[in-house]
Amino acid sequence: MEKKLAFLGPRGTFTEEAARILSLGQNLSFVPYPGIIEVLDGVSKEEVAYGVVPMENSIEGTVNSTLDWLIHEVELPILAELALPITQNLLVAKREHPLPLSAITRVLSHPQAIAQSHNFLRENLPEAAIETVNSTALAAKMVSEHPEEPWAAVGTRLNVEIYPLEFAREQIQDYSNNYTRFVLVGRESLDLPVSRKEKTTILVTLPEDFPGALYQVLAAFAWRKVNLSRIESRPTKKALGSYYFVIDIEQKMDDVLLPGAFAEIEAIGCQVRQLGTYPFYMHQTNS
């Protein structure tokens, strides 16, 4: 039976693009879900076998809803990660006469897309109302369904192929080096392409009565010459000032180095939870 993969919908999101790249060659059907939490819950409840959600943007940082749901609400291993270049565009409904920027009264998009295009919107559409919705594709769909309104959406080039839209301006993101990391989650393994880069992500809980515990955690990796690419704190939601630490390790799980580091960390009273060991892919486009 064909397995299902959920992505942040509706059709035309960057997440759909990432999902199709990550699952290239797999016999999967794609199912759009209305939100990140719904995607993760759908996989957790086995409505679908896999899910793809955004994890971090190079400009705006971590997508907190993804990370917090993986920490607090579901136990789904990360199977793969993809860094996808992101270009934002200002989209308007097709009409007989082009809609000038000065006539646009409302701009809709996902909060991350709005933030990534902040400078353009402030300089070119200072009077327009900014409204956030669940995805760039939903914004594009809403604009396309109201061609009589002077509205615009910030979204992907793919939306122009799906909906009756046209470009008001292309590539309006504030920074050219704009990437988003997407993660593939699921309880079943997939036959993924070989990658030159592997990662392991762990969640560390520090003991409350051990001064310098974070230093000791980092030292366990340092003396083993294990490279860390990211360390981020997230609230445990148990007390003010109580945090988990999410750590990205630049290698896959092995039989010696990482188990040794984890054992050393646990020996000082920390808890270690593996969120996944997986291949990392960097996608390049010509656009």
UniProtKB/TrEMBL annotation:
Secretion signal span: none
Reaction(s) catalysed (UniProt annotation): prephenate + H(+) = 3-phenylpyruvate + CO2 + H2O
Prephenate dehydratase domain segment(s): 4-187
GO CC annotation terms, alphabetical: cytoplasm
Cross-referenced InterPro entries: ACT-like_dom_sf (IPR045865), ACT_dom (IPR002912), Chor_mutase/pphenate_deHydtase (IPR008242), Preph_deHydtase (IPR001086), Preph_deHydtase_CS (IPR018528)
Pathway: Amino-acid biosynthesis; L-phenylalanine biosynthesis; phenylpyruvate from prephenate: step 1/1
GO molecular function, one term: prephenate dehydratase activity
Site (Essential for prephenate dehydratase activity): 180
PANTHER family linked to this entry: PREPHENATE DEHYDRATASE P PROTEIN (PTHR21022), PREPHENATE DEHYDRATASE-RELATED (PTHR21022:SF19)
Protein name as annotated: Prephenate dehydratase
Organism (species): Brevibacillus brevis (strain 47 / JCM 6285 / NBRC 100599)
Organismal lineage: Bacteria, Bacillati, Bacillota, Bacilli, Bacillales
